[in-house]
Amino acid sequence: MASSEDKLKWRALLLPRNPRIDEMKVKVFEKMDQHCFEIPRYQNQTYEVRLWCAFDNENAPWTSDYYARYFSTEASVPDRPPVFLHNGFFYNSEERTMLVFWLPLHKVEYTAPDFAYIVQSDLGKKALIVSNNSAIFLDWDPSIAATISIWSQNSLGLSVNSSELKVPILTNSERHQAQELEYHLKTDIMSWRPPKDEENLTDYMVFWCSAAKNNSQFCDDTRPLKKKRLEKSVNELHFNESVAQYNKAVVARYRDNSGGGMRWIGPSFSEKSSNILGFGTGFVLLLAVLARLSIVCFRRLQKCKEVEVELPVGILDAMDGWKESVETADTPPIITFPASVSPKGLVDIKSFLEETSRQEVEDTIVSPYVSVGPVL
What we know:
This protein is α+β, with helices and mostly antiparallel strands. It has three helices and 21 strands. Among the domains are: 8-72; 83-167, Immunoglobulins (Immunoglobulin-like), CATH 2.60.40.10; 173-280, Immunoglobulin-like. Helices cover 13% and strands 32% of the residues. Strand 10 and strand 11 (134-137) form a beta hairpin. The two termini are 63 Å apart.
């Protein structure tokens, strides 16, 4: 039988390759004559395991060196869906579009490659994902109440559960929205007036996010979206810093879920109203511009066929002398081109095509958010 001096005790430290995960000490225990430790909760991650040992007695020193091993946790479907913001919807009555917002998952929660979100309503409409925290429904019918659901998705499938957002009938949504939003630059205070209908009003939620530089997005999804709850008697919020370049929203919440959704002000919105700029209209304008460019290019190509090239005076004068001297001389005369020919007229076709090809690749941006999910 082995003495206590012969038995070893172990300690372990897990060092994740992902910098978003903190290193962790884990307890080593014996099971079926093996030394084991619990697997970390994060899926699809790689860890370095460092192991130290010592004799199993109170004063025995630990080894100065360690054993290093590596292992990876298994990939899986996402553990959970994202969470919608409280009454996190914005209906644009002029464009009949519906924007919805959520708090995204952290990257350590993706658990497998090809991570994306799937958003659809119980009316069968699917949303277009425009960023990591928002999506848009086109041609929204405000006369019908709906439930919007969101799932997380990766290469192995959908999350088991979904989050839901209840959207009421919005034909009179303005009566249940905060009124006259204004941001005061000198004091960094945003103020508003109560909704026209205050019956069953419970409180306010204020949201603000850094405006995205990319026009196809609304909030900069690389930075956190912030929120604060206020009592219904409070009609202003004092920020600790300037948020002039932030998009800011106020949501009036009602006991019977009759709220009109978010009311916005900020760089992505016009000054006189909360109509969003650059989404529904932006899609139409983009298609119109592309169509116009196609027509212009086609017409220019057609005109190129009819172009008559006029060379500078004197450029072909030497040709007449050359024709006459061909029959009387073995060596053709030197053709001299006038100095008025601009060197800009000479193009290295090979290098030009290579430059164009490189530029086209550099100008191509692949959105990490757009994914075609299964029909649910």
